Structures
1.
Amino acid sequence: MSAVEPLVNTPLVDLRGSALDRRTLRMRLPRASAQQNAPVETVKPLLDDIRDRGRAAVAEATARFDGVESGTFRVPADALEDAARQLDPAVRAGLEEAIARVRTVSAAEVPSPRTTEVAPGAHVTTRHLPADRVGLYVPGGLAVYPSSVVMNAVPAQAAGVGSIALASPPQRETGLPHPTVLAAAHLLGLDEVWAIGGAQAIGAFAYGFADADGAQGTPEALEPVDIITGPGNAYVATAKSLVRDRVGIDAVAGPTEIIVLADADAEPALIAADLISQAEHDPLAAAVLVTESEDLARAVDACLGEAAGRARHQERIRESLAGAQSGIVLVDSQEAGVTVVNAYAGEHVELHVADPAAVAQRITNGGAVFVGAHSPVALGDYIAGSNHVLPTMGTAAFGDCLSVHAFLRVSQVIEYSRDALAQVADHITAVAEAENLPAHGEAVRVRFASTDQED
């Protein structure tokens, strides 16, 4: 295969012989474009309307975008119970196992308070406090995501959040979120669930609404939240970016992505299956293979064509695999491949190489890293115990996976004795004068004024 010969099913990027500096890689690696975000001029007026008119604006947006007209948005308790009762036993067992495993990992992440003695009589305690109230968003659209209920709710619960609200788009037939989403909420003990989707859900979480806001059915109120988490479409992502001056958010997420680093001995069919597993999410999903083996690249490309043709969602899979955000990247060596993977900073990283555990230690930019042939991304999507709400669009270079820490605030408690303050009083005064803030120094000096006069 020559450097310029195209593959049949997937775009080819040949980096052999190229300088792998950061600028080159950012320009040449497959990447979804920023157009994933909806225009601000489309979303901002909707958010402003919800801020000003509350529930009436949410109702109008729900009718317009979801085709649902309802007098109430909060899901009744009996609907949650019914959904759980009617849940397929096999799905219930899978969700319960996922909950247990994510809860185990989340519980281990909760930090304990730590008090440090800086000097005799001088103590600083660092504590981690849960947010008072959070809003969890679970998308609808092309798929159903009860797993996202688990991934958002369990860390919030483990963090000790006292008030948790969940929103998910209503179905046109019932006016309620998908029953599997409702069942997952019930399994987790969530009783505040709202049939609100899209940007209007983000606006409702950020601004809240009161009983009297355009009520046409049963009065109900949604209290604003402190933090909003959860994935969503372009409108949800844009809405989250616009309200983060008012609430905390986990991230502004783009479409899902997977990048696989593989050597010549990797199994092409397994790689193709994993690339397709993410491509089926969305036509804009990114699926990237990085390898030094031309033979493997050709074999994976062939497997992709065959497997996509058999897939239930083959149309969106083919669109994803053929898009500018996907491709097969040829490199000179495994070391070059590691450089490419770290520069890509992908949501999901898979390692199909010899000694994958050792290579994993060199992957510094990845939302979640899956080590070896028996750790597919699909495992992390559901039941590994890890979280599947991850940074996308290269933000794994600085962003975090969703975890207990997203729902915690770090606060410090400072306690100094008189003698301990006296030891540093002159230092404080000197630095305060250097900053031309003499009142700072005076606030310390005044505590010892009576002693100075006595002396």
2.
Amino acid sequence: MDFIVISGLSGAGKSQVASIMEDIGFFVVDNMPAPLIPKFAELCMAGQGYDRVAIVCDIRGGQTFDGLFAALSDLSKMGCAYQILYVEASRETIIKRYKETRRLHPLVREGRSLDEAVQREKTILEPVRKRAEYIVDTTALSTAKLRGEILRLFGSGGPQQPMSVNVISFGFKYGIPIEADLVFDVRFLPNPFYIAELRHKTGLDQDVYDFIFGYQQTRDFMTYLERLIAFLLPQYVEEGKAALVIAVGCTGGQHRSVAVTRALADFIRQKGYDAAENHRDMTRAL
């Protein structure tokens, strides 16, 4: 069982880290009281389906971490191996983030200035930092890079793929999907709409598919598109992207975009990625 204790400075990004770990298969509990940690670990070790657990413990739980250390000592006695992930950032970065979000630092409520609160929290958390197996400094990390770092540390062994891909066909006449990361226009391909026996069919019908891919320009386009996608997918994974949406559009979203989406989704699955295939506008004209 993976049992991770997430701690660190307020404003350093613990919530983002917790969300990322949840995405990769961890069961995440935020701000669990320290005395409950051993009891929760017992449930996990008893085979309750919690194989990967992350618990967030921070300054909200009290001014000292004696209770946390006592709980961690109990975990060791129980034979529950744990690791501490400590999240930090520079004082200037944390102050800037609090000013931008206009949130209150937990220790500001005690009459301290924001600067004093950050310094005080750093002092209080120093014993936790010294015991941490992993220290992640988010000062210069974008959300994508933070995700990549968490995936590097904890991504293996989880039930989920590091990135899912959704390939969507659409019609330009109905608008580009707002969730699309990549958009490809296939309106230059031969259009089955002008073939009477194919007009009322879709790109999922074999005779329509064969018509579109019977042209050399379609096959050439797919060769270049597959090379591009094969290059991009591992780059997005390395960046830490959780989901990629590829949109393929033709005029009405019924023939060409559907056939190309079908072929592209198959190619992506052959590359070992979890690829979903959706046809947003395929039935509008039927």
